[in-house]
Amino acid sequence: MQLLYPIGLLALAGLIIPVIIHLWSVKQGKTLKIGSIALLGESATASSKSIKITDLLLFILRCLILILIAFVLAQPFIKKTSAGAKNSGWILMDKSQFYDIYKANRKTVDSLLNLGFELHNFDLGFDQFLLKDSLLKTKKFTELSYSSLFNQLNKQVPSGYSVYLFADHRLKNFDGNLPKPNFKLTWKETENTDTLKTWSTSFLGKIYEGKSTPKQTSYSANRTQNLPIISVLIYDPTGTDSRYIMAGLSAISDFTKRKIEFKNWNTPAIKKADVGFWLSDQPINASNLSKLKDSASFLNYEKGKVVTENSNLLLDENRNQTVELKKRIAPNHLKGNTIWTDGFGQPILINEGNLKRNQFHFYSRFNPQWTDLVWNEQFVKALIPIVLGNQDAKDFGFEDHSLDQRIVDKTQFSESKIIKSNGYNKTENKNIDYIIWSLAFVLLIIERILSFRKKTNLDYVKN
């Protein structure tokens, strides 16, 4: 038996209490009269005192109760070491792909099962399943990366176990370095029967054809696309900020090979526009809004108190695209999703997408006296979500498609041979304080019964 908190044994000092109670006893003396001096007056009264243990059984019970309480405070436990089951281990594989994996690796899987390994689903929870249950069709519930799954495995796989993993090495399953496993891992790469995947994706208003093999993924634009002209309305009473907007949109046109047509908002138009820039703090009325398509996006300057500050304009949530911000408008409209902020977290651009049109509220100005955004290389990229839709920045590399077949270089993995597990020693700390509590409770009941009987007997003698 070992103690988790040995300092709790200091409570044994409380044993002095029952010792004092039982050790000190004062008895009344007897009156003796001496004949030779009886006529001289009252004889003296003598008291006899004795120091000895009285009620030995009660004394022992009370001491035992205090000792047991002290041990409970010290948290006793028994360290139990036992030999674990031999040949313990897991076979991990995606249950939704069990048929194909088992067909290609039947001999290996059967030999592991004969050694005592258990089948577990390589997905969140790592549920165990039997060979007979594997014939039932299942779906993959999550798309967790290998890094996330390995973090969970380190917490769930028992110490000393071996794990045999059947999984591919596709790049899309890795979101960083794998954590070092706390168990013995043998990774068996599974082969894909279909090594070529094709798909179509839309990016910056164009349709691209994607082709992916284990070695590379490539995209090519569909040359037969007949993309419509993007019509843009601009309102700028000062005539200053619109020049930067037009320059940025021209760069987008050159990059995407899309024709962009600029028009003044006050110019009569036959067709409704796709995009609008209202570069004024004057409120936009219903008549002007009617010149935009129902699906149009438009940006408007917000009106309010001008705040001068020396900060940065943060263009993405990762805070790695920043430009100098000199002035801003104190925000008065906070409904929607914050797109840009300053260095203090105050919103600079808010997208209110729950309206009929996709509206952007801008709490600054494109004028260089307010911000250096128009001189920054990120200016054109920042305008793309407004002109061509809310395109995620991560899609610029086309690297997150589910059909991506690229694999990690095999030299980064080493496949081990199947090793027969020799078992492991399992150490368990068994708490026994509940036993001590139970024993102390029983002793307390016995002590109370004896004390009650003693008190009753004393009252009877006095009467």
TrEMBL record:
User: What's the protein called, per UniProt?
Assistant: BatA domain-containing protein
Q: Which organism is it from?
A: Pedobacter fastidiosus
For this protein's source organism, the top of the classification is: Bacteria, Pseudomonadati, Bacteroidota, Sphingobacteriia, Sphingobacteriales
Highest taxon of source? Bacteria
Membrane-spanning parts:
6-26, 56-78, 434-450
One Pfam family from the record: BatA
Q: Where is the Aerotolerance regulator N-terminal domain?
A: 1-76
Alphabetically sorted, this entry's keywords are: Membrane, Transmembrane, Transmembrane helix
**Which InterPro entries does the entry mention?**
Aerotolerance_reg_N, Double_TM_dom
